[in-house]
Fold these 4 entries.
Entry 1:
Amino acid sequence: MRSNVSQYDLIAPGSLAAVLNALADSPGEFTPIAGGTELMVALGAGRLEAKKLVSLWGIPELRFIEVSEDAVTIGAGTTFTDLRRHPVIASDFTLLAQAASWTGSIANQNRGTLGGNCVNASPAADSPPALLVYEAELTLISASGARKVPYGKFHLGYKKTMLRPDELLYSIQLKRNFSGYVSYARKVGTRNAQAISKVAIAALARVHGGVIEEIRLGAASLRETPARLVATELALTRRSVDAELGPTIAAARTALAGECRPIDDIRSTAKYRAAVAGNLVEEFLRGL
């Protein structure tokens, strides 16, 4: 049953300072809404619990991509279309550009924001695996100040994050130090477009002399939160990727099986997700 919109309130202060003041004056009372690609679906389905919303759309302080020699800082209000079209994102952060192209339809990409994708905290979201392997740093802000946190610590559990009731995600920073890495991204879903992932993997690796010096693996839909596959990374570091890959692949599959906790749901089964995740990691290793 659709929601009765008359039961909801929406304010649009129009500036970042005004939004932060509203959150500070009534902590926990207002739910921020940016592009609305998640909240409006819940509203239409009659399952949006939040009754008071504060709009972040159109606030210029949140929509930007700043490039320096060492890093790129992305405002939380930056849309997926902004990310797809930005030349430095395309050249330096191909995994994030790929994730942006996966997210919904063109209309969704025009409205959906990177910050919203993070804060919504879905374990199946498209951008978190890339942000995890790039070791993104988040800036969280409130009327009382700002703090920086590693994105890897942001998710505390299913749909739970480090954000306080009076805080917003302000920006996502990525270091520009991945030029020597091999990158890989695959999303498996029901369709090629407009599909929530059954499982997705984002990966980076640096190889020297046929040996993996460093490897990073980020995953969607394999745990209760977007996850770095740390145990699998450790199992693969210093492993050979020369012609005989059997022992390396076996080590990856064993470690992956031990740290993944996929679920059965309407989109897929835990057994299928675990099998496909192993196949994707193997595909990445063979590509090295």
Entry 2:
Amino acid sequence: GDEREDDGVPSAAYVTQLYYKISRIDWDYEVEPARIKGIHYGPDIAQPINMDSSHHSRCFISDYLWSLVPTAW
């Protein structure tokens, strides 16, 4: 399929798929803005993510989410 729009920018659907392939996180976009919610599909188990971003620093959240991403390619 054509994964790029006319201006050469990848489509939102393509970018979302790419993020999922890398992070294995399926985000829940229906929650209120401050909540970070989804499911991380790790190599062994599926682990729910459910955080209130108003209770954590952005650095903590970023570090936590990156810690879920496997480093072996």
Entry 3:
Amino acid sequence: MKTVREGFPQDFLWGGATSAIQIEGGYDQDGKGLGSGDMVTAGSRNSRRRVTRTLEEGVYYPSHEAIDFYHRYKEDIALFAEMGFKIFRLSISWSRIFPTGEETEPNEEGLKFYDNVIGELRKYGIEPLVTLSHYELPFALSEKYNGWGSRKLIDLFVKYSEVLFNRYKDSVKYWITFNELNCLLKPYGTYIAGGMLSEDSDLFFNLEADSKQERLQAMHYQLVASAKTVISGRKINPDFHIGCMITYHTPYPYTCNPDDVMLAQEEDLINNLLCSDVQIRGEYSGQALRYFHDHKITLDVTEEDEALLKQGCVDYYTFSYYTPFTLSKDPSMETTSGNMSRGIKNPYLKTSDWGWQIDAQGLRWALNNIYHRYQIPMMIVENGLGAVDKIEADGSIQDDYRIEYFREHIKAMKESIKDGVDLIGYTPWGCIDLVSVSTGEMAKRYGMIYVDKHDDGSGTLERRRKKSFGWYKQVIESNGEDLT
């Protein structure tokens, strides 16, 4: 009989996470094409970002320079190594490899950049965790095919993935196909996750548009592309570990009213689990089919698609966790926002500077719920606190609030491991300050490394260690035991 595991496994993968569009910059260098994220203007908590069809003079696009990882990756990776990272989650920019998505041959200069980044990680013994698509695709594919609204993108994506699999078959072990694939279940996913252009709006988050049919069709094409990519990757290197990535919101019923309880269950089964059911079990669940029926969604699904989904199941489950959501059938309840979603304000929880509610116990609930459904290895590949950081007179950044956030979430992870969850890694989001996808801000800082870059694009780009830097280093050195 197995015994209860105390503490983290000795080979636990501690690290951090980023995405290309939020850190790289170099948007027009060395043959890179325009990506979907390169067409998005800055915004704020009070003003939405815009998507422009051409680059407009005098308009600030945060991704064009971001934090200039393109030129500073050696400095940044050295800092990650100083913290003791075992793994680093990065994404590869599709438009840096295939500038329009349809070239016959990949852009060699783009590949050389990732050769250098992966080589630098390997120099320090850091495992690369590579996301193939993290809210980015060549903008030319948005213009020509309406992004993932077209089945055409499936084979273009597989071709791109195969180039990377072949190039890095001996240097990258861990892969993720699509970031937060279930984002397409929400209206804001139309452009951010699907690269689909709305005819009547240039809003980045077009919350007013009811495009369920379009978004869920795009989601299906991504699910098929993911499955084909998994199948192809295993042929190139059977030792690859290829995973899914889901944005997970722990669903709480606001009351014990059965209507609220059923609503919370529906939220979990559809918005949290629909995509992972397909990627892990190989088919749409009964609840998903009921959802399509009730919303009059008719998907273009072929027999070949169904066979591919069965064959191309992923090896492990990764997810982002920032906040839970409380749900009620009562339309008069006060709502609050979170990572790509909204819910009822929970009176028992604290709230971040950006209105996201904080609940470490919700992470333990999520880990147990997910693992005991699928029973495959799990990684938390995004988790963190966006906050306003202040530089003190002595130059230090005393981000004790971030340390407290991480401390409580790591405690919840330890409890879930005692519960029997096979948790293999943790990569907090924005281990270095980066551009916020939702608002385009730099002021919403997640990092343990401060970057001197501001919302208007000004700044020296100087890096400096926050208090959380040294704290996380001690956490990694002690394998999660020293949380003081």
Entry 4:
Amino acid sequence: MGSSSSDSYELYRYNPSIPAAVIFIIVFAIVTIYHAYLMFRARSWYFTCFALGGIFQVIGYITRALAHNNTQNVSIYAVQTILVLLAPPLYAASIYMTLGRLIAHLDAEPLSLVSIRWLTGIFVTGDVISFLMQGAGGGIMSSGTASGMTLGENVIMGGLAVQLIFFSIFVIFASLFHFRIRKTPTQKSSISGIAQTGWRNPSWETIMVGLYSASVFILIRSIFRLIEYAGGNDGFLISHEVFSYIFDALLMFFTMVVMGAFHPSKVLNTGGKEHRVDSQESVQLRRVPSV
């Protein structure tokens, strides 16, 4: 791939900061290693996508640092744009799977608006659509032409819109489940909530706190990205690198930190119901590519 030949479209309207990129390479590497450790220790394979998202961030910011002296290199621009864009949908996939496991763990499927059999399939399908659209948009932008860049941004905006819709529905869904189980607790939930165990001890409600926090961070980030791309290539937000670090890099780092602090594996077991959820998810995920 070569450089963009158009003067009307600029890959960067600033010179990418090496210190900022290096800081986030380091912090994302640290938290990703921690997530990998938690995942392998507890065999919580449903967090594979989450750890992969961290790897995407590290590589994405490595290429961002390389862009400092290669601001006209379309290949470097495409790699860092695509990887940083696609990390949050990977986080979302693990977040969706976590709620299904939590519902099964609490014997609370009757309190869920959707059966566990379909919960993961529905939300992960939306996540895959968003992932593919954002990836395709990044791929189109790698053409290096002004028209390709503009079309790619529009496709990415569509993917972000899909992500926002499904994530917003998920937050509502999770909140309604939380309300219902607080109102009509199961035997497991009644003895293992925050009121019984306290904030310092892992419980099903600390998992919910983690899911809510991560969801809010991802929602804010997605709204920012949607507004940023809607502003055009010469817009105020996209022309100032600091905003992408505050409303994307920093929020995604917080997402990884909060999910590490309230990691589901500290509560969810790997026996009976976990195995059944794995089987149901494998059936649903096999159907996703046909969407």
